[in-house]
Amino acid sequence: MAAEFVVNRAFLSSVFQEIQARLANVINYLDEEVVKKLEITLSSINDVLDDAETKENLSPSIKNWLDEIKHEVYELEKLLDLIDTNEQRRKGTIRHFVSGFINRFEYRIVIKELLHRLEFLAEQKDILGLQEATRDIHDTPIRNPSIPSSSLVDDASVIFGREHEKEEIVDFLLADSDNTDKQVSIISIVGLIGIGKTTLAQLVYNDHRIMEQFEMKAWVHVSQSSNLICLTRSILESFNSSTPDTKKLVILQYQLQQRVMGKRYLLFLDDVCNKDGNMWEDLLLPFSLGSSRSKVIVTTRDNEVASIMGSTRLLHLKQLEDSDSWSLFVNYAFRGRNVIEYPNLESIGKKIVEKTGGLPLALKTLGSILRTKSSESEWVKILETDLWCLPNSDNNINSLLRSSYLNLPSNLKCCFAYCSIFPNGYEFEKSELIKLWMAEGLLKCWGRDKSEEELGNEFFNHLVSISFFRQSVIMSLWNGKYYFTLHDHVNDLAKSVSGESCLRIEDDNVQDIHERTRHIWCCLDSKDGHRKLERIHKTKGLHSLMVAAQGYGDQRFKISTNVQQKLFSRLKYLRMLSFSGCNLLELAGEIGNLKLLCYLDLSYTEIASLPNSICVLYNLQTLLLQDCFKLTELPPDFCKLISLHHLNLEGTHIKMMPTKIGGLNNLQMLTDFVVGEQHGSDINQLGKLNQLRGKLRISGLENVIDRADAVAANLKDKEQLEELSMSYGQWREIGYSTKVHVYVLEALQPNRNLIKLTIKDYRESSFPNWLGDHHLPNLVSLELIGCKLRSQMPPLGQFPSLKKLSISGCDGVEIIGTEFCGYYHSSNVPFRSLETLRFEHMSEWKEWLCLEGFPLLQELCIKLCPKLKSALPQHLPSLQKLEIIDCDELQASIPTADNISELELKRCDNIWINEFSSTLKRVILCGTQVIRSSLEKILFNNAFLVDLEVEEFFGPNLEWTSLDFNSFNSLRTLTITGWHSSSLPFALHLFTNLNSLVLYDCPLLESFFGRQLPSNLSSLRIERCPKLMRSREDWGLSQLNSLKQFSVSDDFEILESFPEECLLPSSINSLELINCSNLRIINYKGLLHLTSLESLSIEDCPCLESLPEEGLLRSLSTLSIRDCPLIKQQYQKEQGERWHTISHIPDVTIS
Questions:
Q1: What is the DSSP letter of 423?
Q2: At 8, which helix (H) or strand (E)?
Q3: Is 142 a residue whose pLDDT tops 80?
Q4: Among 12, 216, 396, 1045, which residue has the least CB neighbours within 10 Å?
Q5: Tens of pLDDT along 1023-1047?
């Protein structure tokens, strides 16, 4: 009850400020006397809110009184929004009449009714005994005037008192596993809530040593409601950077098993509390096929959970030592101030720190609270509060979080409470949440000297600084964006303080929705979508509706035009609407009914057009259309969306911009600007959009033929643009000077603050002068794609900040000479900051003469440059990855690189190695000469090699007696492709830790060297190896109990029946038969002993006549049959005559 009051008080206090400021603008609609009465009434109510906040136990009468006030204030705010929009129309800002708005006479009737109700509520304050707030002028606190404007996002690299624990975990992760009976090694970090388990795990996750050693990493937050399917999906999503398209557990586990097969992975399971041992056993089952050096990190509050999960090692986090506690507290409480200058506060602060018991969350929270307080009385008040001391339970943590919440400004309380609309574990971008706050009007009632986006940025950073928001590790790594989430306890707090205002509809239990609910997040599925929407329809005062799709493709609930018409006719006061990712093919014209709509998200839907009625949404600030790939145009009256701030067109196929888009001068985000054919002059509309920031992609530049239009675009003055892409399409004859595009691009000079630049398909003979070292000093990334240059490269070597340079498809370039380096001297080496350099598809490039510099280069790729003859830089001290692919004429030696870890040489037979580092972890070699000249040198004395691929070897057998293969304990994956020799150059059984072996297209290979396979092999794939297949009974597979997956592909008509009896070991759980053109019979006796077999896949076997008459194993959970025409009809679900023999298998696919 108290929590609900707090948010009521916060909401009312902030909204009162806004309403009182707006009343002066509605005199034309209301009697002046009515306006004055409203101001007096609202002020009278506002005066007693402070008194109510000080009461510890609120009576039901006060609670009801506050709810009534909040409801009436919502109604008043809604009416003022309608008046504002109508006033814009009256003044001519909006030219056409806004249908559905009531006239002035009706406004006055409605506002008088509201006034009467508010006056009645104001009179009740005396009956309820509420007093006006008073302040002691002698104890006025000295507060910072506002939330600090600097970024308050935590620096995760700064830690206090956890260095030893971090190193202990890193040592465990990097060490070879001594766990002989199982492959999944687990370390559990155990400790109290707020002790810093997640923070420590994140530090480990981002440690450079970990990033180098593990091939795959995944981070999953385990909420209390997580089940086996959800967790498996989340892990797959984290590994793959994409969402799985199924919810079937057997398919998910199979996909996960394939993903980790033979790989060294690192899995973080954060905040585990589930004690279901069977679930954890099933979850970890697919991971057994990964490398034995893989690891899992678990954070949990419960020792029992750590035990149930079979932890290899436990790390109990203790409270911080006194000195570390003080350092952490000072970092938050005195940020931006010198603690020495506040001796009185320092002494009080040390007493506060002592009472926290060394709990990091308590230290961060209290430090954040005290950062904005400078009076001793305020610090003493915190010191004397006992709710948070000696934290040892959820209740104490919740009290601590609530204390932090109570110290927020009123507007910020409302912004935080709004986050309760998000389900547990929901990950959001900063910009996304700020746009939502804007739509709800939560940023309007603060100072006018800053934009709403700037205020939202300050609010967001502050909530990060007090640990209400925490950065999500994985999402940031996928796409370079930063995502955030709420800890479960913080999410519970948001839900508590929001009361009835916010509602999440996540399951099938749909109850009646309270009439005063304002914000709903709803998950719809095909089963009960209509039933949920019927409940939502009744909530006429709804402000926010976020609809999430459940299921995939056509299985999702379809949001038809009929469904939309009902929504839009009843929910007329929506400020925010999201259909992102939903099954939406068309947007109903009734969208125009939502006069107050500020935020509309239609991303990832299949809409092909927008109705013109959307253009009457004069309050619309945000329109998101990302990846609406069928969308080709915007409606003709689009320029009437005068309030639009954010327009995302990324991934659409818009052919041209709407007329007069430059009139939308509030635009700050415009992802794409398309210059249409015959509309080249439209680019001058960019000149009117002076607030653009972030990233902008301009396409269709071949249509711009007048330099004056390019000058008018005024890119040079757009200081807040960080990323710019300029793209040309198919060039046409323009009948003018051939230099026209040079002049146009010269006139499109970007601002010096630009960070990333891409120029695509530019085909003139020279680049503009501004593409040089002095004009873009902050440029970090540059891509030149498909630029058909006919002369020299631009001088790029002296860009002081350039870290990534990619040059691709520049076919006209023959020589990259000294001009590429720019003008330099001994103290100013070329490319001094460059870390990644790529040359690709350079068909005419012959010489590379600029070979000096590159002191920090970590990655060098030269690919598909067939005429390149010379040369390569000879010394790259920081190089870690080198790729040279399809450079047949290149004659050069590999650069000296002491720390290189990855090497790929393909079809470049004239490359040689003088000396090479022993730090290589991954090597790919392709081509007979490369393998002959390089493989032995690379393998010699290399104890760190993990992954080796050799391809396309023709010639007599290789024998390397000088190599000590017993030293290759690190090798985990071996792939041999196109090996045209009768035997392999090494005995496979000597690679004792090899997990995965792939042999592909080796037609002459007769046997494994020594006829033995590694004892730890878990995956074996053999394709197009006919002679090897003939000797399969000599392989000794039946004794290889480590083998889990076996895949065979044979299009040489060797196999007619497979597998032979006892050919495969009983440990096999996945079997694939692919492209076996002569296979007729699946041998039941060969399967009978495979009691662990879970997945069977048969693909492209045209002669297969049937599956075993006896049926398939009961252990099977997945059966996939594709392109096997003779048996397709026999085994169709519930219709085929043999369906009953496989009907016990949970997941069957026949196509």
A1: P
A2: helix 2-22
A3: no
A4: 216
A5: 988 888 888 888 888 888 888 889 9
**How many CA atoms within 13 Å lie on the side-chain side of 110?**
17
Taking a C-beta distance cutoff of 8 angstroms, is the pair 1063, 1038 a contact? yes
> Is the N-terminal amide bond of 608 cis, ω within 30° of 0?
no
Q: What is the DSSP letter of 894?
A: P
Joined tokens for residue 744? 């146009």
Residues 6+ apart with CB under 8 A from 1128: 1121, 1150, 1151
How many other β-carbons are positioned within 10 Å of the β-carbon of residue 125?
Answer: 21
Indicate the pLDDT class of residue 136, thresholds 50, 70 and 90: very low
- Bridging pattern class, strands 881-885 and 892-893: unpaired
Report whether 923 contacts 948 (CB < 8 A): yes
Report yes or no: 579 and 547 within 8 Å, Cβ to Cβ.
yes
What six digits make up the tokens of 817?
């000479």
Q: Are 649 and 624 in contact (CB under 8 A)?
A: no
Q: What is the 3-state secondary structure (H, E, C) of 771-806?
A: CCCCCCCCCCEEEEECCCCCCCCCCCCCCCCCCEEE
pLDDT at 731: 63
pLDDT digit string, tens, across residues 865-908 = 999 998 888 889 999 999 999 999 999 888 888 888 899 999 99
**Got the DSSP string for 225-269?**
T--HHHHHHHHHHHHHSS--S---HHHHHHHHHHHHTT--EEEEE
Peptide bond into 871 cis (omega under 30): yes
Expressed in angstroms, the distance from the first to the final Cα of the chain is 58
Read off the DSSP letter of residue 365: H
408-465: pLDDT as tens digits:
887 888 899 999 999 888 889 999 999 999 998 888 754 557 788 888 998 998 888 7
Measured distance CA(2)–CA(1097) in Å, rounded: 60
Question: Side by side, which strands form the sheet with 428-429?
Answer: 428-429, 483-485, 470-472
Confidence (pTM):
0.81
Going by pLDDT thresholds of 50, 70 and 90, the confidence category of residue 178 is low
Find out whether 716 and 751 touch, Cβ atoms under 8 Å: yes
Residues 903 and 942: their CA atoms lie apart, in Å, by: 13
- Residue carrying structure tokens 């790989």: 263
Three-state secondary structure call for residue 144 = coil
Tokens 């009434």 sit on residue: 41
- Contact of 642 with 94, CB cutoff 8 Å: yes
Q: For residue 644, is pLDDT > 90?
A: yes
**Residues shown for the chain:** 1151
Cα 225 to Cα 221, 355, 528: the distances in Å are 11, 34, 21
Place of tokens 């092909």: 608
Mean pLDDT of 529-545: 84
Dihedral over Cα of 439, 444, 449, 454: its sign? negative
The pLDDT tens digits of the residues spanning 215-258 come to 888 888 887 667 888 888 888 888 876 666 676 777 788 888 87
Distance CA 574, CA 858 (A): 51
* Residue reference for tokens 């249509």: 703
The pair of structure tokens assigned to 792 is 């020299």
Could you list the beta-strand ranges (E) of 1015-1143.
1019-1023, 1045-1049, 1057-1058, 1070-1074, 1081-1082, 1095-1099, 1118-1122
d(CA 745, CA 768): 6
Is the Cβ–Cβ distance between 523 and 550 less than 8 Å?
A: yes
Task: Write out the E strands in 565-671.
Answer: 576-578, 599-601, 622-624, 646-648, 669-670
- Per-residue pLDDT of 975-1014, as tens digits, reads 999 888 887 777 787 788 888 899 999 888 887 755 578 8
Place of tokens 């947007």: 587
Q: Are 708 and 737 in contact, with CB atoms under 8 Å apart?
A: no
**Among 688, 686, 723, 728, CA closest to 704:** 728
Q: Is 1121 left (phi over 0), alpha (psi -120 to 50) or beta?
A: beta
Q: Which amino acid is at 728?
A: Y
